[in-house]
Amino acid sequence: MFLQILLLLLASFVSIQFIYYIFIFGRFSFSKPKQILPSSEPISVIVCAKNEAENVKKFFPHLISQNYPDYEIVLIDDASTDDTLELFEAYEKQYSNVKLVKVENNETFWGNKKYALTLGIKVAKNNNLLFIDADCYPNSNDWITHMSSKFSEKKTIVLGYGAYDKIKKSFLNKIIRFETLLTASQYFGWAKIGKPYMGVGRNLAYTKETFFSVGGFVEHMKVRSGDDDLFVNQASTKNNTTTCYTPESFTYSEPNKTYKDWFNQKRRHVSTAKLYTAFDRFQLGLFFVSQLFFFLLAITLLAFQYQWMIVLGIIIFRYLFTWISLGYAAKKLNEKDVMHWYPIIEIFVIFTQLNVFFTNIFSKPVHWK
Description:
- By secondary structure, the chain is of the alpha/beta class.
- Helix 1 crosses helix 11 (about 280-305), helix 1 runs parallel beside helix 12 and helix 7 packs across helix 13 (about 340-360).
- The chain has helices at about 1-25, 25-30, 55-65, 85-95, 115-125, 145-150, 170-190, 210-215, 230-235, 260-275, 280-305, 310-330, 340-360, and strands spanning about 45-50, 70-80, 100-105, 130, 135-140, 155-160, 160-165, 205, 240-245, 250-255.
- The longest helix has 26 residues, at about 280-305.
């Protein structure tokens, strides 16, 4: 009787995953690309940096060489102690469309990226804003063109894809990129069915009007992280949010080189999720539980050899639809190589997430300094 209940639970969790992967994530995975209609609306690209001198040297040329008729670059130096400020000052003198914002340490907002971003947003002269991190670079010189093309009278928030560089012969790199692929499939899929819940600051656009209409970051200013996902979770609706995932619109950044660094990064990201809306916390929690218990129940039933042919059939069915859904998403996001290791990587990611959850219960993650 007990094993029969476990079998029913396994079938139930796989059914839940089928709904997620096919009917929710699938709205993105199986979507057809739409033609880009270039916009000429002026836009402000906002970059916030804290001790990012080396990255600024490498990546600023990608920003200043964009093929877009009317854009400014707002460079925010958040009280850096390296050469970041000096570089920004030189760029401001050299380029007429570069504007510098100097942020000094403030006792009330010490080390708070949201405070620095707010100052930059206030200074930006254009209503349309496009955000990228200082350690990122656009995939093409048409990045602004593709992201800005998604703005319209109704669509005032644009969710983009922030990818990570590929490192050959690095299994950790494949894990990081798979987790990024899965996350993107989730937030693109939910946005397409009218329930947007997050975006990534590495590639995100919204209007200044939308920012101030919800009070900016005021509701979560004391939370050190979440300038991207918490803002989107608060401000986005089915009517004002759209997506952009053409290859030209991608941004890339260097991934963590060690498991410890990646683990700490995940801790920071997960710590903000507790402030999502109740529905978003529920749907994310249900998805994770269905993943975790799929493995636990499948292993238990196979160990007892209970109805092993039925169990095996359920397992094969589950991997079939997840592989298809993620495979199509991976093709869109240029991450096809990670799918070769999918079953192994997925297990690793799920139990890392479980470890992150319990670690965050007993200690707080370190944020922007």
